[in-house]
Amino acid sequence: MISIDEKICVGCGQCVDICPGNLLELKNSVARIRDVRDCWGCCACVKICPKNAIAYQLSADLGGTGAKLFAHDSPTKLTWQILKTDGEKTFLEVDKHQANKF
Ligand code: SF4
Ligand code: SF4
Fold first, then answer.
1. Where are the domains of the chain?
2. Which one of 13, 37, 42, 43 is most buried, counting C-beta atoms within 10 A?
3. Whose CA is nearest to atom 2 of ligand 2?
4. Ligand 1 site, residue 44, Cβ cutoff 6 A
5. Does ligand 2 have an atom closer than 6 angstroms to the CB of 52?
6. How does pLDDT run across 45-61, given as a tens digit for each residue?
7. Considering the domain 2-101, what is its CATH architecture?
8. Is 72 in contact with 83 (CB distance < 8 Å)?
């Protein structure tokens, strides 16, 4: 499931437009998810948010309880960042021109 940091969100609406399930909405110029139980974790909103206001909550077996997954997108690469509760960060880079090889 995802979480949205209301203090970081600037209300651009890009996550609302891209969610394939129409699960997100803007309320008072801040993004919110209508019912987080409906989210199937495709991470489209995580990837498109220009402010990194949306995080995917990782399960205990993936990143440890409380760990979050963020995405930093650029024209050439997508960088996934895992942030653990102790502050440890792990980065996974995907070269967009090579992504179809895997
Ligand atoms: S992770 Fe996917 S399904 Fe869930 S809110 Fe974001 S875009 Fe919608
Ligand atoms: S894409 Fe990010 S900044 Fe824009 S409305 Fe959604 S959460 Fe807020």
1. 2-101
2. 43
3. 49
4. yes
5. no
6. 999 999 999 999 998 87
7. 2-Layer Sandwich (3.30)
8. no
